[in-house]
Amino acid sequence: MPPVPEPPLAGYVVVDLSSGIAGGYCTKLLADGGAEVVKVEPPQGDPLRAWSASGAHIIDGTDGALFSYLACSKRSVVAEPGSDDDLVDELLAGADTVIWSRGPGIAQDAFTPGAIRDRHPHLTVTAITPFGLDGPWTDRAATEFTLQAWSGGIVGLGRGAPDRAPVYVGGQVGEYLAGAYASAATLASRLRGGGELIDLSMLETSVLGLTYYPVSYYEMLGRPWRDARRLTVPGIARAKDGLVDIGCGTAQQWFDLCAMTGHVEWIDEDSPLSITQQANEKAEELYAWVADQTVDEIRDLATAFRIPNAPVANGANVESLDHFAARESFIVNPRDGFTQPAAPYRISGATLRHPEPAPRLGEHTELYRSRNRHHGSEAAAGATVSAVSRSDTLPFAGLRVVDMTTFWAGPSCTHLLAMLGADVIHVESTRHPDGTRLIAGIPVTEDQWWERSPIFSGLNTNKRGITLNLSSDTGRDLLKRLIATADVLVENFTPRVTESMGLTYDAVKAVKPDIVMVRMPGFGLDGPWRDNPAFAYVIEAAAGISWLTGYPDRNPFEPYSVGDPNAGVHALNAILLALEHRRRTGEGCMVEAAMVDAALNVAAEQVIEYSAYGAVLQRDGNRGPTAAPQNLYLSNEIDEFGRLDSWIAVAVTTDDQWSGLRDALGDPQWATDDELSTFAGRRAHHDLIDRHLAAWCAERTRDEIVEALWTRDVPVAKVLQPHRQTEIPQLAARGFFESVEHPVNPPTPHSTLPFRSSRGPDRVHTAPAPLLGEHNRDILAELGCSEDEIRRLEEDGVIGTAPAR
């Protein structure tokens, strides 16, 4: 029996100077990959040790379940600021990377990111902060809730109902997104030898994870994606026996829904209305049809019609859903016995670490004191840093990626690779162009209408484009020749589609034995839902993200955003582990990065709280477990659409912030009640606070409110329309948007990466998104095709530069 290979990151040493979910999730992903993660804590421990979203009592000497999940396989060292500085310096000297965030303990003393980098230049220092380490807002107070507001993510894609305030995406998803991006950025740094400062902004990860290229859309087309909140229809609806999510992401799915519900007369291929508008017109009839069926009846029909659908999961039911049971999507926490998600991706050929028990506070302090005394820092540093040589190129320079992805999840993964230097070749066909080319609402009568999609443009800069008719033998043969030149192949079709093209891992491996093949199906490669079409909204519903989004007296709202980019950044993490496995062993591998597995991981708190404490977490509008008060309040401003609909987000997480809010309000009598001086008291009297705070905000502009609260260190934000992101001075100062020239479209601002590196790049976008088939000749010539052969391929319709009629 061959020996089991070591995990890809075995021998990679990470010092964790972070606190909270973002840093905890980042280092969890690194630990899953096999890294040695040493968590440095203050004597009182990471605050997450005492945290429960449901408010469950954590007995002294034990840890909250969420901490036990995030800290699996890590080690804990207690360091007292001042007296233990030498110990921490020795740990850093022997490490490869450090993950840092603001919080209690030694990270706020002598161990700031700049100071660490100065003393330990070999390290990758990854700093996770709300706004980044530089810029005018770097020291401003923020929470995940207020960052969602600034990013435009609360308004999102028109989520919510027009008769109420917009609503944030529940479950602290922004923290997990930031952690996943931080892990990917850290591992990318490893490819070029480390020795750099990675400055990650949680505002920027929220922009990428919760909005859909709204600036590019607005600037290119002259209109916002949505100008009003409206329910997604049918979306999440109530059936006879529970909630079900049914979606229409394309016109064909709307036509199929009409047929499924017995209303073929609704189909109008020439309607001037969008499919969203047509569905809203028929909302009453659609909801009535859903209410007359069971969830299983609806899902069986929708699956037969190829319409995206899913049950609406929560902490109590998600583990028992047949698909997750069949795929063993959940495991038992190795220390405390509750249920937690399995890893967010599966890598055949490589070994991910099976979770080990989380450490008790300070469990490994003496071990590391002894190790440092006996071995010294120089030997330890030399042993770890020599693993990867230093390179001055971008992390993925020299890597070729065949990109057979479409829409959002897959292209977002390959876009990150392209922006960090990979040669990414985006494969389309004239019969089936990338779906994002078709969703901009450009009339087909307009010249080159398929090149005018801001979404396609936003997702595909720095890539090259080729068209191949894969229904022909010649097209498939050319694809194989292209794959033979590649390091990575990424696709995100349903398994049925990919396998019908003969693109199994065995077939691809026969062409390129050491290739890393990445498959990104919505629901995975096996299980009863494997062939179901998957858009973000059904992934969010099936994983439980939707359950926490919305008002308690209404059906949940679909976030309609998180599922895709979250899948993309998790797939990138898996690719980085697979590439490290290949570097060590010379062997390729197959990565299964199912969208739903990534979503289950960022929604982990629900199943954890239920299995550990019997608590089903509930949506609560814009209130949340981490702050009180936390809510949206109307200002006195009329918005750009002529409505009294300009909101402000406020979140108070500490007693000091409450004092600051009281001071801004003028210390009114009602706010001096002793009960309000504690978090528990403020939660108990949230309605009272809301009434007074709403009245105060209603008399002021948003700028006045932000100025009054931010100067007193109270987290506050304007609820921005997402297309107004360029007006945020912090993003401007950090160069988050870059203008991109295009041969068909005007120069347009495009979002970049959510982190900056001290080693560059200075500019992220080096080429516009490719025109359809723009690089056919160049790429085919690289494969050895002559001009005559390329001309015949054009004549035979194997390649082309316009959609087939």
Automatic annotation (TrEMBL):
The keyword Secreted does not apply. Residues 740-769 are annotated as: Disordered. Keywords: Transferase. GO terms for molecular function: CoA-transferase activity. InterPro entries: CoA-transferase_III_domain (IPR050483), CoA-Trfase_fam_III (IPR003673), CoA-Trfase_III_dom3_sf (IPR044855), CoA-Trfase_III_dom_1_sf (IPR023606). This is Predicted acyl-CoA transferase/carnitine dehydratase. It comes from Mycolicibacterium gilvum (strain DSM 45189 / LMG 24558 / Spyr1).
